[in-house]
Amino acid sequence: MSVKSFVFLALLAGVAVVAAACSDREKTSDDDEPLDGPFDSPYTGAELADRIQRAIDAEGAYTISARQENFVLPQWGGADSGTVAVGREDGRVTAAANLFRTGDGDYSLWLRDGQTFFKRSTCDALARVPGGGGEVLSPFVFLGNDRIRGATGLKAATGRTTLILVLDGLGETEISFRPGTFLPNQLSSRTATNNGKPLVWTFEKWGEQPKSSLSSEAFSKAYDRGPGGNPC
């Protein structure tokens, strides 16, 4: 091999090494992390719950894409699949949801100032759950309430990025998370609906606050009534 050929090949090898190093630096810390195992957790169940709760509270907002059938919500009744965005405004939890009420129809719901307002897709009028109904969307709320940290049956799943726990309103539950951030990817339960069908919630849109196109005046004029019956 000539000296020129040797030098050329050496230069090519050097370029390849530099390119590989740059490529590695461009990766985020989550690129190589498993979404749900295999993973050997160095944490106890209580430690995982604490880290997951802190991660959620730090983000301050998220959206749940819910897959479920007849999951009973307080003062509402059964709810099928849909989305629920949860956040905070002026220190209070807010939420905006689109859920199909089991056996009824599509509804939009809003949690504002500790009260739940709703509108059926076929209606123009906005209503308030009698008495305020602040608990309607509470099963979807994990912000600022220590709900995960204070759960029972906390256990780190063997070989998986998953926390096993028992949650109020959901029963036996599993939460998969990213080991780099401890933010949940998915929550699942086979006991929440009491119908033998699994409930699966996927977390997304971290940090994005709930939105509403309705004015404050529209909420102030809402009248009290429950869902169902005469929808409008």
Give the arrangement of secondary structure elements.
Elements: H1 3-26, H2 45-59, E1 62-67, E2 71-73, E3 77-89, E4 92-101, E5 105-112, E6 115-120, E7 127-128, E8 152-156, E9 162-167, E10 171-177, E11 184-189, E12 199-204, H3 216-220, E13 223-224
Question: What does this 3D model show about the protein?
Answer:
The chain is α+β, with helices and mostly antiparallel strands and 232 residues long. Helices cover 19% and strands 34% of the residues. It is built from 3 helices and 13 strands. Strands 1, 2, 3, 4, 5, 6, 7, 8, 9, 10, 11, 12 and 13 form a 13-stranded mixed β-sheet that branches. A hairpin with a 2-residue loop joins strand 3 and strand 4. The radius of gyration is 24 Å and the shape is globular. The N and C termini lie far apart (87 Å). Mean pLDDT is 85; it is low at 1-35.
Largest sheet: 13 strands, mixed
The dominant shape is globular
Judged by helices, strands and strand pairing, the structural class is alpha+beta
Distance between the termini: 87 Å
Specify Rg, calculated over alpha carbons.
24 Å
Q: List the uncertain runs.
A: 1-35
**SSE order, as H and E?**
HHEEEEEEEEEEEEHE
Task: Determine the mean pLDDT.
Answer: 85
Number of helical stretches of at least 4 residues? 3
Query: What is the helix content?
Result: 10-25%
